[in-house]
Amino acid sequence: MNELDRYVDQVRTPAYLFSETAFRVRAEQVREAFGPEVDLCFSIKANPFLLNALPDTFAKVEVCSPGELAICKALRIAPERILFSGVNKTPAEIREAIAYGAAVLTAESPAHFRMISEAARELQAGDPDRKVAVLLRLTAGSQFGMDKKDLKALIAERGEHPWLEITGIHYFSGTQKRKAKENLKELSRLTKLIAELEQEYGFRVRDLEYGAGLDAAYFEKSDAEAEEKELAALREIAPAVRETGENVHLTVEMGRFFAAPCGTYVTTVCDQKICEEVPYAIVDGGAHQVKYDGQLSGMLVPVIGHFSRGGEAQAWTVCGSLCTTADVICRDAELFGLKTGDRLSFHRTGAYSVTEGIALLLSRDLPAVYLVTASGELRLLRDRIETYTLNLPQGL
């Protein structure tokens, strides 16, 4: 049983429970591994509800859409903590972020860079001393960022944009890196690029924003085993991170690794049956609300808390309330004496489950969201939301 399992009987299911304490502990674990000279950044797309419990351990939050910026403004997140990133930012959205005072913006492409430059030029017309800080995003072979050739071209023409201050590089290649050698290779590549930019253009990279993308272990036998696996990976890359941070102001950005251990999803068994010798448990939530990277149609079983009267073990296929055969949370989950009315808690669902689900299928309600504060108070952050109105044709 983890901290959040003590609260499963106090909520109407399905629901999400997030832990302020677990969030702070994970941030401190990363800070201890990387050292005080390396800043930490929380990518809020993993779980914007954790902004209610954002510890001072985080120097920055990564914001990747106008909606996320609106959330930060509503919660009064200090603008100097905001890294405004992401593709497809319009000129109006860029101006809004600059006007709010976002600490730094990332440029995803040459065209994107010029949009930021134009917005900054307009701003400087009324505030001659103001410069907008920009990070050039280096691609990792995907649609994000720009290649080295374009990045270098922008460095070469930096003098043509006196209202901008290119402070460095942003790099993120993806999440769920399961081998430390991937991170070590990336840090080595970035170190070489930094040296090239100084040698070829006399440009000193001041800031390096690095998305480490460390693996969140979802399918271990226990929370303790999952945490040990995660912290072992953290310790393995820590020396290279510290070394990189000796030569440049390094900020490590992650979302999943920070948020995953901080959440539990609670759902109730509503029906049980055996179809062609397979025991099925139907719950009031479903796979549209439980997001584990690598679920593989429910073939992998996460850590599950079961609250019942005990009994014999049996392997159950746990399915949700959607009318699709894809709604399988997990198969062959060994549960003891499972009965209709029992509650199940799916651990380590603090990242993405609350934001990535198929929210509108069957017009079912969005689950309520709760935060367990550091003092143990159960606080409702968002009540259940009906979605049928979003699927209701208008203008009849």
Helix content: 25-40%
Rg, nearest Å: 23 Å
Main sheet overview: 9 strands, mixed
- The average pLDDT is 95
User: What sort of overall outline do the alpha carbons produce when their principal axes are compared?
Assistant: globular
Uncertain runs are none
What pattern of helices and strands is seen along the backbone?
A: EHEEHEHEHEHEHEHEHEEEEEEHEE
Q: Give the class from helix and strand content and strand pairing.
A: alpha/beta
Query: How many DSSP helices?
Result: 9
Total strands: the figure is 17
Could you tell me how far the N terminus lies from the C terminus, measured between alpha carbons in angstroms? 51 Å
Indicate the proportion of strand residues. Answer: 25-35%
Structure description:
The protein is an alpha/beta fold and 396 residues long. 29% of the residues lie in helices and 26% in strands. It is built from 9 helices and 17 strands. Strands 1, 10, 11, 12, 13, 14, 15, 16 and 17 form a 9-stranded mixed sheet that branches. Strands 2-3-4-5-6-7-8-9 form an 8-stranded parallel β-barrel, surrounded by 6 helices. The chain is globular, with a radius of gyration of 23 Å.
